[in-house]
Amino acid sequence: MRRINSLYGRIGRASEKPSKSCHAFIAAPSFSTDGGYGGGGEFQQSSSRVKIFDRDLKRIHRDRAAWLSRHKNDTFLDAVAENLLDRLEDCKKTFPCALCLGGSLAAVKRLLRGRGGIEKLIMMDTSYDMIKSCGDAREDSLGSSVETSYLVGDEEFLPVKESSVDLIISSLGLHWTNDLPGSMIQCKLALKPDGLFLAAILGGETLKELRIACTLAHMEREGGISPRLSPLAQVRDAGNLLTRAGFSLPGVDVDEYVVRYKSALDLIEHLRAMGETNALLHRNKILNRETALATAAIYDSMFAAEDGTVPATFQVIYMTGWREHSSHPQAKRRGSATVSFTDLQNQFGGAQS
């Protein structure tokens, strides 16, 4: 478990030195690799698909976050991106063409530092403002040899051709998709054989303190419960998601970050700056002022430390998967074993009484 003290109060201002590189901003038509193509792909969704999040509202949240976090380094987002990118150092192969999806784009871009042997980097987000902010940031960490382009697109309808990239990175972005398995399937199809998928999403234990405070405040002030925090994937689901998407050699691990704030209101401001505020499609659009104040008071009374700060837990699930390739270890065909368990028991366990 990691602890990050006074995160929001210590966000530093980065240098505003203008970048000398030229950037290509592309507004590409979205398409889905499962059939929809071109602009019409967005309107060919199956009517049976369950919609949980308001994607238009989430894009607005991303626009707002782009300006709230402009020229600022977020310690929490940096820690998650650094942990995710560390996995590239464990790989002997290089990834000439990489695609970075949504989430903490600026942190990934700044902390990449030549890892993975990337020569071409595509940064994609649903928010034009976020893409513009990322493009305006300095590129000292990437190096002059990396060709960087910027793309406005949707993770639910990935605007990338099949078998076109070597690496896909998503740091804290995919948990806002309505069809997470479908988005991961599209990522797998976009990868070349032996391509790598790296993703970090928020897990179900995220903001457990805030969930408790919200529930108690709603019950006290309104006599019922109204969903104020979005549902998130559980750790047990992550491996199933990778397997369902068809990734080879799936890997999942979990980390918890405890961030301390001066008050519950500072936590809310930080969530706004990250673009992580509520985007449920069937949400209550009106928050009673008394309920909001009661939530903050309950949060402080239940979880405040001796120094007056309040903790917030962020559970991060890291997922790793490869697109299948002949070089990957393959499971033996069922029934191909040449030694039975009975023979093994007789050989190694026969002496036991």
TrEMBL record:
GO terms for molecular function: S-adenosylmethionine-dependent methyltransferase activity. SUPFAM superfamilies: S-adenosyl-L-methionine-dependent methyltransferases. GO terms for biological process: methylation; mitochondrial respiratory chain complex I assembly. Residues 106-198 form the Methyltransferase type domain. GO terms for cellular component: mitochondrion. This is Methyltransferase type 11 domain-containing protein. Signal peptide: none annotated. Keywords: Methyltransferase, Transferase. The keyword Ribonucleoprotein does not apply. Pfam families: Methyltransf_11. The keyword Transferase applies.
